[in-house]
Amino acid sequence: MDAARAGLVFLTAFLVWLLNHPYQGVWHDANVYGLLAAHWLNPQGLAGDLFFSFGSQGSFSLFTPLYGALVGWLGLDRAAWWVTLGGGLLWTGACLALARTMLGAGFASRFAVFLGAVVVVSYSPNANIFVLGENFATARSLAIPLALASVAALAAQRQGWSFGLALAATALHPLQGVWSLAAWVLARLRPLSAVTLALLPVIVVLLLGALNLDLPYLRLMTDEWLEFARTSAPDVVFKAPLQTRLPEYSAVLAALWLGARTGSEQWRALHLRLLLLGLGGLGMALLASYVFPVEIVVQVQPWRVMALLIPMAAVAVLDLGRRAWQASAAGRLSVVLIAVLTGMNSNWLPGALWAIGMASLMPVAWIDRLAAWAGRWQRWFGLALAVPALSAVPNILAGWEIAGTKLLNPWWTGADWLQGLLAGNSWHFALLLALLPVGPGAGFRGRMPGALPAMIIAFGAVSLALVATLGAWDRRSPQYRGEQACYLDTRCPPHPFRQWVKPGSTVYWPQRELAVWFELGTASYFGQYQAIGRVFSSGKFHEWQRRQARVAAGTDPRQLCSDPLLDWVVLPAPVPGLSSRAEQRYAHLYGCAELRAVTPTS
Length: 602
Known about the structure:
Number of strands: 5
Largest sheet: 5 strands, mixed
Helix content: 55-70%
Structural class: mainly alpha
Shape: globular
Number of domains: 2
Strand order of the largest sheet: 2-1-3-5-4
Number of helices: 28
Radius of gyration: 27 Å
């Protein structure tokens, strides 16, 4: 029956994940991974693209050939759908494995799983570029849950499984998965050795910065390249401290410190190792951001360790809450207090966690006296909590309403508050689900009569809801879905421009950068997606800057084609005095070879 309860929690959590992570097609970084797949399928056709001219991160990942093969079989549209869905399944399974290993099978465990399925958390240092549980296809979609599952296996004393999962995560996305490998190594060391190893990278960065070696990857970034990394790259290095997530990162470290000091005995060593891992990674990131911008450190983006530590910190907090609830009336009161304050305004949480973390340094006797004092006055504290708890209800309802109105493609018309609750990333929904009984003994004391029929009915209801939700999971408009349906799909008729544009040509189509890659199957001259990766190559950065200056000067094909690297220009309107090679609606194709024949290159 325990396995059945776990299965029901998993299915329900996956249903919740689908509701809160609707599929929006090939967008955001899914376009980049689609480009990597296109290059794997057609390296000659895309060899001249700026994205690949100076190397790309795709050559370091096993995800590229695997995804490329899937795209070649299904086309980009369906391949991205399956990878995104698989990422959701893996994420839900990793949350379940971690929660049941470290929190048991009770309320805290269920809340952790549902919370992971509902809440969208950004682990980026500045903006909201990277989030946990992405609803688009990337290598991160698979690597992050595999890394989390590796830590779950580590907690379960499955060393072989932990290493294998960490290795798989690293093979798919080295910058994300390497932190689970590091956690596996630290867990096998004694505390002093773990501290030394965790701090060693920080010392290395200090030495490299002080020496400033004139060697590729080991030298300091300088001039325009450094200025770009510090001001224009959204999530490479930390911006000004007040514009970053340093308070949230500090709260994560405080939560791990709490777990290491006052959490369940069997998990304290693991929390300590993860805290050391976070201190090392964050220390490297801060040094590279503010003091010594060593190329390789900036490029590996060590703040990515937070993708692993944020869910682990949540587990540590829930473990502390479970222990406090079971320990005394004062503990239960403190849990209710945190829930009430969070319901009112979650902005207080980072500071509160740091305050509690510092308070945990107090002698245990002082903490016991404080708990005893709170226990004697618990009735009055309870009455005092009732007032803010009731006052929080209108704010909570308003929050659901706002979240429902913000949905781009709502699941149904009307009842915005209900949409906000069910699909607006609300932790209240996770709490309500966790409070529901799941089988005998899950929500009530003793055994429930008719447990097996009730479980069968529950499985049937959740399965039907899951099938219905999955059928409507794709929330794209028909026009957007139709536009992407033939991306890299050989079963579709070729684009009409392919009669003239041959693979290996370079095309500038400012309004449809993706069409150049995914429909014409050739290199793009300039576009915003090519800007990704400029921090990984000084050559790519300066070439992108050169092309940006050229296209900023105007879109006259005669001027653009003066660059011998460019073969075709596609513009939305005809250019007076010029004959286009081919035309479509809002697309006029001009050949640079013809224009250069009458207008010599400059």
